[in-house]
Amino acid sequence: MDEQTPQAVRRPGPAGVVVAHSTVTADITTSAAALMVALCALWGANFVAIKVGNKGFPPIFAAGLRSVGATVLVGMWMVLRRGSLRAPRRLLMHGAVVGFLFSLEFLFLYGGTSYTSASRAILLVYTSPFWVALGAHFALRGDSLSPTKMLGLALSFVGVLAVFRAPGAGLGPDHLRGDGLELLAAISWAATTLYVKRYIQPFGIGSVQILFYQVAFSAPMLLIAASLAGQAAPTAWRLDSLLALLYQTVVIATISYIAWFWVLQRNRASTIHSFTFFAPLFGVVFGGLLLGDSLPFLLLLGLALVGSGIYLVNRPVDRA
Q: What angle do CA 230, 93, 91 make, to 5 degrees?
């Protein structure tokens, strides 16, 4: 493979982030691998932070505040890097569509965590690569399903069934509603990825700029949705919830995403994306340790199947 060949947008990274393209420059180094594991730990802990944040902020309102904060911080980063915040007029409509899909994803993701556990939520949200692979087969030219991807899809499907069948000890009676919302979040994330690949990537827009469009367009949409749902104000002023929201905004939506793009631009995309199976692993571990989430056998089986599926879908291509 040519060392400068742009990589296809068919593998999401952290939840909600869509990669426009990356330049293959080198095999992964030890420091890059360590950084990827650390980033996956941060993304896994994010689902715990969402649960904690929901104690003081209504879910939709929290998602909107996160987008507002990320818009400011990512915009400042782009200005400091002398990047342009302006978009071609033809791109504005596509930016609005991406913002709408991004809003749907976090509407479902934050809402789902009100009913289900952080451990179950992250497993279901990280089925997104499989929905991308399935959708790309029909929506994107030259991105058909291979036998390896089909095996990954099959494993993920069985893994989702295992999660849904896992006992809901310690969960409320509506936890299956939360599971369903998290699955819809994964599908919305996949739809955003496919839309970017088909309609925005041809403009040659960088990943950080796409991230800016996602958060900038989604912020007013989510805040309007929160207002319509009667969730436009905090339910309680809690220090833990405020710190959790700051973590989601500053550490996750800004620092970790920019670090993700940095490492992706300097290493083989196929190798970097294969690390994403660590995110649901950390999410399940943190959910059990910090929130006391129940970890029955079927949930752990689902983790193993989803993780294996992520690896197979993102398996590095033969370079020969």
A: 135
Rounded to whole angstroms, the Cα distance separating 113 from 135 reads 26
Q: To which residue do tokens 């910090």 refer?
A: 290
Give the pLDDT confidence of 268-318 residue by residue, as tens digits: 766 777 787 788 889 998 998 899 888 888 888 988 988 888 888 777 654
Q: In which residue are the tokens 């912020």 written?
A: 219
Q: What one-character-per-residue DSSP string does 206-267 give?
A: -HHHHHHHHHHHHHHHHHHHHHHTT--S-S---HHHHHHHHIIIIIIIIIIHHHHHHHHHTS
Q: pLDDT at position 172, please?
A: 78
* Residues 167-217: tens digit of each pLDDT: 766 677 888 899 999 999 999 998 998 888 888 877 777 888 888 989 999
Angle at CA of residue 217, ends 220 and 237, nearest 5°: 40
Angle between helices 118-125 and 89-112 (to 10 degrees): 150
The length of the chain, given as a count of residues: 320
Q: Where are the alpha helices (DSSP H) in the chain?
A: 30-53, 59-80, 89-112, 118-125, 128-139, 147-165, 175-195, 207-228, 239-246, 257-265, 269-273, 278-291, 297-313
d(CA 182, CA 175): 11
Enter the pTM of the model. 0.83
Residue 249 to residue 95: CA distance in whole angstroms? 20
What's the rounded Cα separation, in Å, for the pair 48 and 226? Answer: 21
Strand partners, 23: 6
Residues 6+ apart with CB under 8 A from 178: 111, 112, 113, 114, 115, 116, 120, 121
57, 245 in Cβ contact below 8 A?
yes
Angle 14-18-21 from CA coordinates, rounded to 5°: 115
166: Cα separation from own chain's centroid: 23
Collapsing DSSP states into helix, strand and coil, what is residue 6? strand
